[in-house]
Amino acid sequence: MQPQFIIIHQQVAPYVAHIQLNRPKELNALNLELMTELRDALKALDADDNVRVIIISGNEKAFAAGADIKQMAGKTAMDMYNIDQFSTWDTIKKTKKPLIAAVSGFALGGGCELVMLCDMIVASETARFGQPEIKIGVMPGAGGTQRLTRAVGKALAMEMVLTGRFISAEEALRAGLINRIVPVELFLKEAIQLASEVAALSPLAVKMAKESVLKAFDSSLEEGLHFERKNFYLLFASDDQKEGMQAFVDKRAPVFKGK
């Protein structure tokens, strides 16, 4: 079935796919249906050998202005427990290929949390990030208290979570939340350029490198170093490692095939 709330662009550049959140009238508010479609699309693209990097974006006005409050307002605690909406997020987190968020306008609440599920973030000058859930009597529930703190530190995370204050793209860059800022008209083009740089490299090495960087957030230094070393050694079983090193010796560009 054709997705209703996302648009999938299969090849915006060689080996690069783009998923656009598509609820413009609701500023791309993340309802259960959109998140299900996003999860399913990411699973399919993650299994597609013709895709090596995936971009997620909204539009110029909003990446996503939060969760769909109308869908949650009347729910009880048991309703929320039984719906278990965050299990969808757990599946998205398991995406092996790099995810790049292209952000313009609002990335708030669940939108900010979805951005932080991605591995790199390109933002336009108009981007605004925030966790304003406190203003409606709740708190972040899809990783906002955890990933934001790891990204920007305790003090700024506390301020954003406890007051609901938005931060600009400039402040987000200074705090280490995003990779770069570009003019509005270039935010998607810049994300595609970044994705293309990654997609030109060995997909096996890229996936293992992503896995190793993420390991740093849920392990001790000693455990992380052991995990990194294991992945490093494993790559010597790949054709890409042989091709990459031989190309270096031959002083030519490597041709990686993901094997």
Give an account of the 3D structure.
There is one protein chain. The chain is α/β, with parallel strands linked by helices and about 260 residues long. α1 (about 30-45) packs parallel to α4, α6 runs antiparallel to α7 and α10 runs antiparallel to α11. It has helices at about 30-45, 70, 75-85, 85-95, 110-115, 145-150, 155-165, 170-175, 185-200, 205-215, 220-235, 240-250, and strands at about 5-15, 15-20, 55, 60-65, 100-105, 105-110, 120-125, 130, 165-170, 180. The strands form 2 sheets. Strands 1-2-3-5-7-10 form a 6-stranded mixed sheet, sandwiched between helices. Strands 4-6-8-9 form a 4-stranded mixed sheet. It folds into 2 domains: about 5-200, 2-enoyl-CoA Hydratase, Chain A, domain 1 (Alpha-Beta Complex); about 205-250, Lyase 2-enoyl-coa Hydratase, Chain  A, domain 2 (Orthogonal Bundle), CATH 1.10.12. The protein contains 12 helices and 10 strands.
